Amino acid sequence: MVMMGKAFGMRMVVVCALLGAAPAALLAQTPAPAPAAPAPAAPPPVEAFAQLPFVAHIAMSPDGQRMAGIFNLDGKASMCMISIAATAEPPRCLPVDAKGVVHWIQWVNNDNIVVRVGVQIPVGERLWYVERLFAVNRKTAAVQRLLWDHGGQHGADLLWVANDGSPDIVMATQSSVYSDEIGFFPAAHRVNVETGAHKVVRASQVDVFDWVADGSGQVRAGYALDDRTGTARVFYRSETGGLRVIDRANVRARESVEMPVAFIPGGEGAVVIRNATDKPARLVQVDMATQKDTATLYTAPEGSRIAAVQTGRDGAVLGVRLEGAQAGLRWLDPTLAEAQALFAKVLGDRRATILSHSDDRKKMLVRVDRADSPGALYYYDSGEGVLRRVAWFNEQLQNRRLADVSLARYKARDGLEIEAVLTRPQGTEGKRLPVVVMPHGGPWAHDSNNYDYWAQYVASLGYLVIQPNFRGSTGYGEAFERKGEGQLGLAMQDDLNDALNWAVAQGMADGKRACLVGASYGGYASLWGVVRDPGVWRCAVAVAPVTSLRRDVNDMADGNYQANQSRIAWERMTPDFGAVSPANGVARITAPVLFIHGRHDTTVMPNQSDMMVGRMRGAGKQVDYVQLPEADHYFARQADRLSLLQATGAFLQKHNPVP
């Protein structure tokens, strides 16, 4: 454990001063919106857009006195625990290994946190992505690796955290990478995060990959998948009985099982999500012993689906996360719902998102932002009724209003309505602009009208940026997702072309000055665009792209049942991987292409870009290749983000210059 450097110590003085300063918004009255800084003639420098956010993966301690997260310390990510109050308590920090990825941070009690990390390691002749948990004690600075010696691929499934102040958790981990050994299926352990002492509370069971615990730490349900037959089963255990199968389905035939997402304390009650295609989505309480519904806890608005459930450390259902027509978090807990409504009332066109809260739900960390501004982190105590600013998420940009962001809808050539995010450059009339179409990754994801540093930077150069949520994207219901099946590289790609055609018809874009820019699946779609439609696109930037689809699917690590399920999903997207793989269409490329790939990418292997660049160079094509030796798939380091933006901007300005 290392202490903070001098620069961060100075920042903490500022943070503490802010916490003791006059309130940024007094909730007893309705303040005027915070004035935006006047836009200067010149756009911000590229370094401003590349700046890492002040904090990511933030979590508030149970008592609301401290926060933990991945903090930006002079452009480098560090895991820190910091007192929110203006006290002399020294913060605890340790640098984040550039070779690993932090997924989340959670407090166990007021003295300990657990951190989930992923890292790529060699297993035989292949690289595997493994996940682990470690704990950090804020008083002693001790770091405890939790079951790291078990040797399985997945060793970081947190099932339960004690809510009585003890340092206990229940976690599940594999102990073997070999599918013919019982340790291949995870066992659940109760672990003391301070000492590392542990005991098995649920032994491995063949085909069971996921366990679910109730609010007291008892493992009550399991999800099993037989990858050979596609049969899924749900196991359930009453408070006094043994495991029994209560539901089964054939996932290959698109049947689904109902897996509990939470348990009602004291009895057989559980909570399940129902996302039916012919009726509103619901959150339902079920008697697991009889399999009968006992209550409807929440009904989603029409056109929305329930993507996830937010629970408290005591197991209580606090809220639901929606996708679709009314995406976002809806709080069911009265205290959180009241606070959210109050924020909406006083903040005008600014948005408040409760990022984390104390166990009693009276203290909160809140992000206040806009789609065109990265915003700030605030601390809220309901006893005071005051939002106090802790820090700007981007110190260089602060509350500066950048390019305008809006949602638009257009119709694809077959009549399907597509939603897109538009980012319009400042200082222009918005007519016949050079345009960048930026498809998202996934493809099971979607873009929304939130602050996007990459899109904002490209727009600052004078480009209209269009981010289409093409068919197959999440957030618009199962029927919309299924429209992508069999259409990889076909209708999914048409949707990108149709976004360009729509913008041209609206008078916003110059169709002869259009480029594609994307990462991951978006990198594939950008690259495939110049292969399939060489006369449409002037250039392409492909970041961490999949170039050989079959090779990428085959690279999914054995022993990862989620990868096995992903294989099934990918194979539904196209009957012929080779026919829609850019690696097989090099001869058709006429536009210049820029590849950017991090050598520490564990999601899309760098060999995907290596192979494609080699083939393009061998064929005499215009190709540039930027390899970043320390970058991961998400460009988590500030230096790598800066390289990404600089390379993107220079390439666009060279091959699709803004007049």
UniProtKB/TrEMBL annotation:
This protein's UniProt keywords: Hydrolase, Signal
Taxonomic superkingdom: Bacteria
Pfam families in the record: Peptidase_S9
Signal peptide: 1-36
Domain called Peptidase S9 prolyl oligopeptidase catalytic: residue spans: 452-655
InterPro entries: AB_hydrolase_fold, Peptidase_S9_cat
Keyword Protein biosynthesis recorded: no
PANTHER family tied to this protein: DIPEPTIDYL PEPTIDASE FAMILY MEMBER 6, SERINE PEPTIDASE S9 FAMILY MEMBER
Name of the protein in question: Prolyl oligopeptidase family serine peptidase
Source species: Novosphingobium ovatum
